[in-house]
Amino acid sequence: MGERLFERPFAPLGAASRKLVEFMVMMLGADGGHAPPSVVRGWVPLLVDTLTLDAPRPASRLAALLAAIEAAPGQPWSTASMARAAGVSVSRLHGLFREQHATTPHAWLLAHRLDRARDWLAGSDATIAEIALRAGFSEQSALTRALRKAVGMTPAAYRRECRLGAALEKSSN
Predict the structure, then answer these.
(1) How many CA atoms lie within 13 A of 32 on its CB side?
(2) Which residues in 75-100 are b (16+ Cβ under 10 Å) and which e?
(3) pLDDT under 70 in the chain at which residues?
(4) What is the pLDDT of residue 95?
């Protein structure tokens, strides 16, 4: 694989590579020119595959899908739309998630959205309703139910606990 790139370091980009680069530029522009490392880690395998293989490997497609979700968790991601974005069937998507993450696409998405919501609750002053929508929940009550089920507290209580912990840590230093 690396030999092929070494032999043609300035090869013209194929259609798949061009589309991926356009997508990456669009996502970077939407985020002020910076992408989290996890997003870049998702793009790299797919970009390498598009440069060196005739068709990207399914695992690279999954990595790119996860990077797209990471960049835009608030999009209305369904299992079908995730499969379309990865360029695989719904059943293959389920298989990839089982192989790579030992979970289903829906469970992974919910966990990712909850992680993002917790990060934003702890580190921003956005309203809970804004955070819920940005993280991909249909409304504030959906986030409340999911967070209560996951960690046993409401978003407001979670935010208070995080801020109290940060204040205590700051005062002890």
Answers:
(1) 1
(2) eebeeeebbebbebeeeebbebbeee
(3) 1-18, 20, 27-36, 38-42, 46, 49-59, 173
(4) 93
- Which residue range(s) make up the domain with 19? 1-102
Quote the CA–CA distance of 67 and 65 in Å, as a whole number.
5
Domain count, the chain: 2
Q: How many CB atoms lie within 10 A of CB 103?
A: 14
Q: Are residues 76 and 94 in the same domain?
A: yes
Residue 16 near residue 52, CB atoms below 8 Å:
no
CATH number (domain holding residue 159): 1.10.10.60
- pLDDT tens track for 52-88: 655 556 667 888 888 889 888 999 999 999 999 888 8
List the one residue out of 26, 92, 14 whose CA is nearest residue 55.
14
- Domain C-terminal end among 102, 121, 143: 102
